[in-house]
Amino acid sequence: MGKHFVLTISREFGAEGHEIGKVLSERLGVKLYDKELLARAAAKSGVDVNSVCGYDENVERRFMDPYLGNGRINSAQEDKLFHQEAQIMRDLYAKESCIIIGRLSDYVLHDEPDVLSVFIYAPESFRIDNIMKKHHISAKEAKKLVRKMDAARNNYYRFYSMGKWSHKKKKDLTINRETFGIEGCVKILEAMIRTKTDEEEQ
Q1: 132, 101, 103, 107: which is closest to 14 by C-alpha?
Q2: How far apart are alpha carbons 57 and 45 in whole angstroms?
Q3: Cα distance between residue 62 and residue 124, in whole Å
Q4: Quick one: what percent of the chain has pLDDT higher than 90?
Q5: pLDDT at residue 53 above 60?
Q6: Stretch 151-155: mean pLDDT, rounded?
Q7: Which of 38, 51, 129, 144 is surrounded by the most beta carbons within 10 Å?
Q8: Cβ(96)–Cβ(29) under 8 Å?
Q9: What pLDDT is recorded for position 202?
Q10: Other C-beta atoms within 10 Å of 37: how many?
Q11: Is residue 164 helix, strand or coil?
Q12: 175: closest CA among 186, 164, 162?
């Protein structure tokens, strides 16, 4: 890809937004950024990277993250990590084309002209089945996990955007993962990016 762009991918839990982004990054020859942004932010903030492995888009237990662990980082550290992540995303935008998964990247970069934002979703029943297979858990456990993670991500959005943003707000495109499959979603996103960059080069 010659023309500069950044694609932000928001996704429902279990809709495989990360998997779609990974395939797309390989197809386009650009980097994919996800949890490694948190590791970079932790390093800049002087926080032990191992202590934030469970943070993953959630601010302590107030966001109901089942992966949080034992609350080893406090809210002040969490806020510092978020702001460090936001700065890292702005720096990435300034220097390279890339794909950023989650981390409120669509909100952080919403004023930038070369950003495309998408939302990957799927029916709850599909996502529950997907999580059952991936984590080898029961339907009841998968349903609980899907709903808890969706709630945690929504709360995370509301908290840091001061209630002004959501997963679905101001997206350039929303895609049903169940309808199109991973490969179909990749093709749609690739066409969207190439159309956008081709238009800007004319």
Answers
A1: 132
A2: 16
A3: 23
A4: 55
A5: no
A6: 85
A7: 38
A8: no
A9: 53
A10: 21
A11: coil
A12: 186
Residue 60 has pLDDT above 60, yes or no: no
Q: Dihedrals φ, ψ of 198, to 5°?
A: -65, -40
Joined together, the tokens standing for residue 110 give: 């919403």
The one-letter amino acid at 20? I
What is the model's pTM?
0.84
pLDDT of 21 reads 97
How far is it, in rounded angstroms, from Cα 100 to Cα 137?
29
**Predicted pLDDT of residue 59:** 45
Alpha helix positions (H), 96-176: 105-108, 124-135, 139-160
In this structure, what is the dihedral angle of CA atoms 59, 154, 161, 21, given to the nearest 10 degrees?
A: 90
CB atoms within 10 A of CB 200: 12
The H helix count followed by the E strand count for the chain is 7, 5
Look up tokens 């084309």; give the residue: 97
For CA atoms 166, 123, 185, 22, the dihedral sign is positive
Note the pLDDT of residue 33. Answer: 94
CB 176 within 8 A of CB 121: yes
